[in-house]
Amino acid sequence: EDQVTQSPEALRLQEGESSSLNCSYTVSGLRGLFWYRQDPGKGPEFLFTLYSAGEEKEKERLKATLTKKESFLHITAPKPEDSATYLCAVLVSGSARQLTFGSGTQLTVLP
Amino acid sequence: GAVVSQHPSWVICKSGTSVKIECRSLDFQATTMFWYRQFPKQSLMLMATSNEGSKATYEQGVEKDKFLINHASLTLSTLTVTSAHPEDSSFYICSAGRSGSPAEQYFGPGTRLTVT
User: Between 20 and 30 A from B11 (CA), which of A65, A75, A77, B74?
Assistant: First the structure.
């Protein structure tokens, strides 16, 4: 069975304190790994797609990396507006676009 | 680009009534749309995959007669919760994938359903 596990469940950082969120996965065949940001009461906002081990993508203070077993979302010098729940999801081989989501990491950045 | 809208954003209905939620891709065509539900502080759970012009595919445990899905055009899918009960109260979110684009999905803002 395909599984996606995110850690930690919650993370509190001081403004400017860099850290990383983890997404580990066990799937039969990875077609893609996705990172989303979700604010309370809203739908997920697409951040990144990673397709192969070694791939990295950056957007402002966020950088996503991928290995054969896990992905990291690095947050450099976060600001309070980065506070949100970060979700990762995988698309597996043989799946017609259905994503399997992890449970998310709730990030709080304190001013 | 890649904007998905949902309507209504929130709805309150009485137990036993039906509620329709619309999901639209505003600036792209979507042959496939997905419907999720999300309980407080939990992740998204896929309910069904909606394909334009054909029957929806439901995930295990989702009642197809209770959650009716119609995908009549390349930009519109609807979810109707029939004979709603309080346990159907949840946050319903749709997503759409661009036709021809490998797997990226764009999510709507969600619909908060409360059944009293």
Answer: B74
